[in-house]
Amino acid sequence: MRRFIFLLFLTLNIYCWSQQFEPEFNNSGVLVSNFSASDTIATKLQRCIVSYSGPNGWSFSPKVHAVVKGNTSNCVALCSQPFAIIIRMENNDQDPASFIRLVKLEQKKNERRLEVSSINLWTNQIKEGNNINDQPFDAKKYGTSSYLIYPSIEDKGEYGLIIFNPNNNDEKPSQILCFSIK
Q1: Do the beta carbons of residue 42 and residue 30 sit within 8 Å?
Q2: What per-residue confidence (pLDDT) applies to 159?
Q3: In sequence order, which residues have a C-beta less than 8 Å from that of residue 19 and are 6 or more positions away?
Q4: Mind listing the pLDDT tens digit for each residue in 54-73?
Q5: Which residues touch 146 (CB under 8 Å, ≥6 apart)?
């Protein structure tokens, strides 16, 4: 009986430890620094509302940008320390690479932006999605409904996670989860 109680206690303890960094709500995230060390720090990712800006005036290559206010995020990771990101979803049954994009944001005076599409007026071609700013990442299931994302980021700057609806990949993002690498 003692052995059963000990194993039950040990199992519950391991389960609770593995869930301690999981975000509380769906489509939210946590940046975890020193994930493998005992002094792990978890910081909630900054949730930013996206607005869209179109071309200004006449241009032969007008671009549409997703714009986020503020030139830097309040969630910061150091490039000298290992870090991971935990994103909570409704369930973690699908491949996260199919609906999560990790992108580098371009910094301006008081905003961060990402090119969403451009139109070449000479050839009348529409180019949607600028994959130049996409950053590679590895992901694993974490807990009951989250993903543990290991970004492969080497440059300092502003970054964002765009989470699309897994059932409909054509929608425009209305929010970006932002963080900074310094």
Answers
A1: yes
A2: 94
A3: 143, 144
A4: 765 555 557 777 888 998 99
A5: 22, 23, 86, 87, 88, 89, 92
